[in-house]
Amino acid sequence: MRVLVVEDHPKLAMTLATGLRQAGMAVDVVFDGRDALDHLAVTAYDVVVLDRDLPSVHGDDVCRALVAGGSASRVLMLTAAGAVEDRVEGLDIGADDYLPKPCDFTELLARVRALGRRPGTSLPPKLGVGDLELDPSRRTATRGGRPLSLNPKELAVLEVLLSKPGVVVPAEEILERVWDEAADPFSQAVRTTVSRLRAKLGDPPVIETVAKAGYRVVG
User: Fold this and answer.
1) What digits encode the pLDDT tens for the residues 193-206?
2) Same structural domain for residues 112 and 135?
3) What angle do helix axes 105-116 and 10-22 make, rounded to 10 degrees?
4) What is the CA radius of gyration of the chain?
5) pLDDT band at 78 (very low <50, low <70, confident <90, very high)
6) What domain range includes position 83?
7) β partners of residue 209
């Protein structure tokens, strides 16, 4: 899942980003509304964690711009204004969910995951091919009923591939969805992660390399 955190308090922003990354998400961070709009213009985020009271461009206007542009990004509005009328106003603007600050991180994480499960085409709660199964919400994978010891990046790559069974997914798409903007587009991160993933999944092979095109799961 690709997430944009828009929060003008750097310490809070980085705390949120660290927690979301530990949960296996690719996270970019910006500190004002103008930077948020610039990022949203070039990157398709699954979820935007959006502070409402932002400098440069107000969070409400960022949300309105997303709605007006027909963006598929889900918006979790995060703000210190927690009165009922504030929540209603935020939802009326176009936010998909609203969470007052301070909040418990585990609740925020659950809400981000819930929003990420609500794309235009809904994904099943569990993904799999053959005897391979991935539970995205629990961040666990099994093969033949045997638990697999996968790190967050391996789980995320597997989720991207299993979400499109039989479809060739370009390495560039995997890089964009699993790594954040700091990732080197010329690195071997995707190839290395897929190689480790193949070894952990065992035989018979589940991930197929399609020359000059990308990867796909078969089974």
Assistant:
1) 999 999 999 999 99
2) no
3) 60
4) 18
5) confident
6) 2-116
7) 215
